[in-house]
Amino acid sequence: MNEETPLNPADVLGLPERARLSERLTKRLLRDQVGGDARSTPDRRLVDRAVASAQVVGILRPETILVPVYRDRGRDGTGDREISDIAVLHLRLNPKIATSDRRRLVELVQRAMPRPVVLFLDGPDLPGELALAFTHVSRTDPEKRTSVIDATITVPVTELPDGALDITRCDRTDLWALYRDLVRIAATAGRPASAALGADEAVQLHHRLAALHAELDAVAREAKRARSQQSRIALNTTAKVLRQQIATVRTSLYSADPSQ
What we know:
8 strands, alpha+beta, 6-stranded mixed sheet, two-stranded antiparallel sheet
């Protein structure tokens, strides 16, 4: 993705015209959806502080993208998961929003939806992020309007090759398969190590890789501050092991062919 190009989620996904929308979400509606009934909560205040504007920019439905509904009746026939549509949302954020606040905002939106959502975020100091999550409808919600998050992933849009998220290139078996393929693409930066790498494993490897990099950075900082040679040797040994682990995870996650 070109960092200088304004983020256009509908174009990033290659949505056909019939799937595109331009429906503004007011802050009040967004606050009410993510913050519950209370007039003032930290989550509602976060929406006020962080969000400059919000829009529904697309809806993925059988009639808009020609991909079937997904229904999983489960063993007891009660319908454990049903996905008949997937909303594409675009949040423009105010400047200087902390990473922790962005993460909380993403979580709130994902939990507030009864089905998976494709969420894009950008702002004056945020070129663009894509947030996806594996969710299921909350069994404690009598109205079935909210979800529980099983796994989530957020990646910079600029890390993905042009056209990588085009839905015409994704698994079109049904809406859940398409969404899972988007997650797989995001987790692998558009170049999965193999066709056999599933979305769940890709997300786990993605988070494992991020954790290893964070651990390596911490060890490197500690090694610079170490006063004794023995401590530096021990820390450098730990760093070497971490680099080996990073290389192993990268091999499991990414294709060696940059064109894949």
